[in-house]
Amino acid sequence: MRRAPGDNRKHAAANEMPTRNERWALILGASSGFGAATAVELSKRGWNVCGVHMDRRATIQNAHATRAACEERGAAALFFNVNAADEEKRAEVLDALAETARPGTVRLLLHSLAFGSMLPCVGDDAKSSLRRAQIEMTLDVMANSLVYWAQELVWRGLMAEGGRIFAMSSAGSTKAQAGYGAVSAAKAALEAYVRQLAVELAPRGITANTIRAGVTDTAALRKIPGWEDIKAKAGAQNPSKRLTTPQDVASAIALLAEPAAQWISGNVIGVDGGEDVAG
């Protein structure tokens, strides 16, 4: 049963520290890119994974492969092919997770949703420009949804002291580029939400941080107009002369999920090998 906002009832076991094999990670965007890599990396480290993704027939095998990789490493894996921005689907996922995970054992929420419109704010005409529905959809999926998932996890008691919230951003949150207006706005909003969550959830012992990944060759990158040039420039300017990989990001998140990182909160953390400062 879903809890109403402000309902602070706690299960007797909610404040017990979960054992290593009880920890759950809820990953939004779990079938590819950063989400998939993080799911597998955490499963190697003894985490169970609840993955939310939205795939059609052409890409569903990615989700199946990610889930199988987690299970091969001994993790329990619950995967749901649903729209993460849909309120009813969100409730269904969390209801199912609550049947498996005891209170307080969802120790990590990763928001890695990449679904937005890639059109100029003001193109040659209305047809070639962002429409209101596209702007609102992009903001809702890529930013607002983080708040709704965090709310439900806390209200249901699934996430408690020691919890970690991470959201994937990019340098595009502060830089303009062709066709990136709506996504850039969403990334900026996402970072603002993370700062707010860090402050509001600190008394509960929950941290929140934004991960600003370097340019990474993912399906999401290839939807950005001019992605080839973006990739080439990043590879040339990165001090290590290579792009960031999903595994680089997954490894960083796994480190930040450890108890010793409890005092790191409210930050935009660059995981890019120095790409941003070298640019």
Average pLDDT score: 90
Q: Overall 3D geometry?
A: globular
**Secondary structure category:** alpha/beta
The main sheet comes to: 7 strands, parallel
β-strand percent reads: 5-15%
Corresponding CATH architecture: 3-Layer(aba) Sandwich
Order of secondary-structure elements: EHEHEHEHEHEHHEH
Radius of gyration: 18 Å
* Percent helix: 25-40%
The count of domains is 1
Q: What count of helical segments does DSSP give? A: 8
Strand order of the largest sheet: 3-2-1-4-5-6-7
User: pLDDT below 50 for ≥5 consecutive residues: which ranges?
Assistant: 1-15
Number of strands: 7
CATH class: Alpha Beta
The CATH topology annotation reads as Rossmann fold
For this structure, what is the CATH homologous superfamily?
NAD(P)-binding Rossmann-like Domain
How far the N terminus sits from the C terminus, by CA atoms, comes to 50 Å
